[in-house]
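Q: Hi! First time doing this. I have a protein sequence and I read that you can turn it into a structure. Is that right? Here it is:
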Amino acid sequence: MAYSPAKVVMCSKRGLDIATFKSAKEACKKKGISSPSNIYKAIKYGLIVKGYRWRFIDQPLMDLVSYDMKNKPIVAIKEDIRKEYESIVKASKELGISISHIEQAIITGGIAKGYRFFILGEKEKEIPRRNSRKKEVVILDEDNNVLISFNSVNEASTYLGVIPSAVYYALNKKNKNARCKGKILRYKEDI
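A: Yes, that's right. Below is the predicted 3D structure, encoded as structure tokens:
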């Protein structure tokens, strides 16, 4: 079965549904949003992107994060340089970064134009990290013998000529009978 992206719903600030999109990528194209990750952060953290709230079609809307931080003093860090600002507004003007990007970086622990931000006197959030540990993927025959081994999902997807999400789908334990291009795939550590 082919991977299909999750539909996203664009909502008003009050939480009323306005439009539904086939994917976050489609929403980005139609609303002029630079990256689907902005929509995913809005869904996860209850943020506003391009003046709208967002949710997946099959999930409720997250509570809206309060933006009562505009006039609080903040700290900006880039490389080893740390600078304090009287407010997000002042930092925005001086650094050329939108207020919403700075607020989003504070809430999520992310980075805006190379800067980390946090409210003065509050603990700096950890940078969100992706799990960089690569798992070995194998193709098995019907008797569970290893036919081919790959160092990663990306390597397996290149070999099979499919997108990585098709390999992940076949590897997911919930999809016990799933195959990718007719091949049985497993993580080596699971066999």
